[in-house]
Amino acid sequence: MSQNSPKNVAVIGAGPAGLVAARELKREGHIVVVFERENQLGGTWIYTPHTDSDPIGIDPNRRIVHSSLYSSLRVNLPREVMGFRDYPFVATKKPNRDPRRYPGHREVLDYLNDFASDFGLIELVRFGTEVGYVGLLENGKWKVSSRKSENDDHVVFVNEEYDAVVICNGRFTEPQIADIPGIEVWPGKQIHSHNYRVPEPFRDQVIVVIGAATSASDISREIAEVAKEVHISSRSALSGTPKKVHGYENLWLHSMIEAVGIDGGVNFHDGSKVHADIIIYCTGYKYHFPFLETNGIVTVDDNRVGPLYKHIFPPAFAPSLSFVGMPWKVNEMVLGIGMSI
């Protein structure tokens, strides 16, 4: 988009990707509106004790809570590489801040608020406004339909046209669940890590955690402090299991789950079996754009969004439709600014 021809641009989401996209667009002289369904910016870095009404997140009619943060979460990268390239994530002397090199999640949210304030982005954000539809019109513009709850019994619906849309709605809201033989008759409780907040509800119970990435590691060790037993099921554990995790008396590593049964048993491929009370799925998330209508041109297939040029532009709609923040297992701050420039 040329700086000499300002465009009206809708940015969906006021998390890290949406904020940096809005800043770059503003710098180029475009007229930017950021849609944010929460009442504050920060995206996935907003902590709330509330969770989805469906603990495993598969009911399409569930009450959805955007955040996936657990209370104890700290960043797993040093702050020196966590910040935007031209806005370092440095410790400040402001009150109630976290100066640690690996700070807690609240420090990241405060950093994002500082970023938005310093670059004049807050006035661009429509808080409490959820986008329900994005689709291309015959005139080449994009229709964006949104709704905002003014109070408990009054919702305002707005239809607008934009020259371009940037989708930054995050990737940690729609849980992905493992397919386990026998789960339909297994009597225990199930929860996705998206809805995990604190360990206390798991006290004195036998827990199976599925997954071996960061959240599985954090959650299994935290729960082990209060649970009777914790058993981690990992597809990368190909031999030597089951085995006790070093430093814990009640934490074991197993291979993948083979099946579960009506007796509450969980059978692993390594031949071991435990009777568990709860299964926690630390199995990641699915890309989800329920508001976007492209007549099948942009699709999510096997959790891959495409076709996208450089993981950003669908060729059929470039440059008026773009996605920022799509790749995962990367530094989202560095990724966001790199994809927005």
From TrEMBL:
Its cofactor is FAD. It is an enzyme of class 1 (oxidoreductase). Its EC number is 1.-.-.-. Coiled coil: none annotated. This is Flavin-containing monooxygenase. Pfam families: FMO-like. SUPFAM superfamilies: FAD/NAD(P)-binding domain (SSF51905). One of its GO terms (molecular function) is flavin adenine dinucleotide binding. Keywords: FAD, Flavoprotein, Monooxygenase, NADP, Oxidoreductase. Transmembrane segments: none annotated. InterPro entries: FAD/NAD-bd_sf, Flavin_mOase, Flavin_mOase-like, FMO-like. Belongs to the FMO family. It comes from Solanum tuberosum.
